[in-house]
């Protein structure tokens, strides 16, 4: 597991995970790593309180290193946005100083949510204040929580369509993509490969 003292290679692929609390950012990291390395929330409280860097080799390509960056949700119940911004800035400082690219963002959205109160643009806007203008084509919009949806065929697909045609249209027009995070290790790696492609 990476930490602030771990060395980051210049050619490492850095993926920052963003999204509301409970959307599955930390779950995604643990599945990708194949073991629990970051805390996952089970209660109602927001779980991740710190920016955490976790490094691993690309599955199927041991020459490529990937760094996954877990972040506290921007709707955190105990931290305000300036605090979170500051944490991300500090954690990414050594990378941005050395001009190491943030390769991609995966923005998580629980498909179980029956209202859309969060927009990826707001989260990405915060991120852009830290690293500069970020191209939409490097953002992967991932819907999560599919296993918890009673009627994924109808309800899930309907919600997906609304995201495509309305809420996330601007992002998609800019080159973002929407993919499902199925809550498995394979699916986590599928998304990592997609955001790096
Ligand atoms: N079934 C299912 N459960 C999920 C999925 N993603 C997250 N969960 C569950 O939702 C809860 C919260 O998940 P976390 O991974 O802690 O969510 P997070 O985005 O890291 O949340 P914060 O740390 O609070 O920002 C946990 O109980 C997970 O098991 C998913 O894709 N499928
Ligand atoms: Mg978390």
Task: Describe it.
This is G domain-containing protein. InterPro entries: GTP-bd (IPR006073), P-loop_NTPase (IPR027417). Pfam families: MMR_HSR1 (PF01926). One of its GO terms (molecular function) is GTP binding. The protein is an alpha/beta fold and 197 residues long. The protein has one domain: Rossmann fold. It is 36% helix and 21% strand. It contains six helices and six strands. A six-stranded mixed β-sheet has the order 2-3-1-4-5-6. α1 packs across α6 and α2 crosses α3. The two termini are 24 Å apart. The structure holds guanosine-5'-triphosphate and magnesium ion. The site of guanosine-5'-triphosphate has 22 residues, from α1. Guanosine-5'-triphosphate binds next to α1.
CATH architecture annotation:
3-Layer(aba) Sandwich
Which cofactor or ligand species appear? guanosine-5'-triphosphate, magnesium ion
Q: First CA to last CA: what distance?
A: 24 Å
Beta-strand percentage range: 15-25%
Descriptive keywords:
disordered N terminus; GTP-bd; six-stranded mixed beta sheet; 197 residues; single chain; 36% helix; alpha/beta; GTP binding; binds guanosine-5'-triphosphate; G domain-containing protein; P-loop_NTPase
In short:
The chain is α/β, with parallel strands linked by helices and 197 residues long. The protein has a single domain (13-196), classed as 3-Layer(aba) Sandwich (Rossmann fold), CATH 3.40.50.300.
């Amino acid at each position: 597991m990476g930490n602030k003292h771990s060395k980051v290679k210049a050619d490492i692929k850095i993926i920052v995970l963003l999204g509301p609390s409970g959307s599955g950012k930390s779950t995604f990291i643990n599945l990708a790593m194949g073991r629990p390395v970051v805390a996952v929330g089970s209660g109602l409280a927001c779980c991740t309180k710190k920016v955490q860097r976790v490094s691993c080799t690309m599955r199927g390509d041991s020459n490529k290193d990937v760094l996954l960056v877990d972040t506290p949700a921007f709707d955190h119940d105990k931290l305000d946005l300036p605090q979170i911004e500051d944490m991300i800035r500090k954690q990414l400082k050594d990378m941005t100083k050395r001009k190491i690219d943030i390769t991609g963002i995966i923005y998580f959205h629980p498909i179980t949510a029956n209202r859309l109160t969060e927009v990826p643009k707001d989260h990405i806007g915060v991120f852009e204040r830290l690293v500069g203008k970020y191209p939409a084509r490097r953002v992967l919009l991932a819907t999560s929580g599919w296993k918890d949806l009673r009627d994924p065929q109808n309800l899930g697909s309907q919600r997906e369509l609304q995201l495509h045609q309305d809420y996330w249209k601007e992002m998609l027009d800019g080159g973002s993509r929407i993919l499902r995070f199925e809550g498995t290790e394979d699916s986590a790696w599928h998304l990592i490969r997609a955001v790096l492609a």
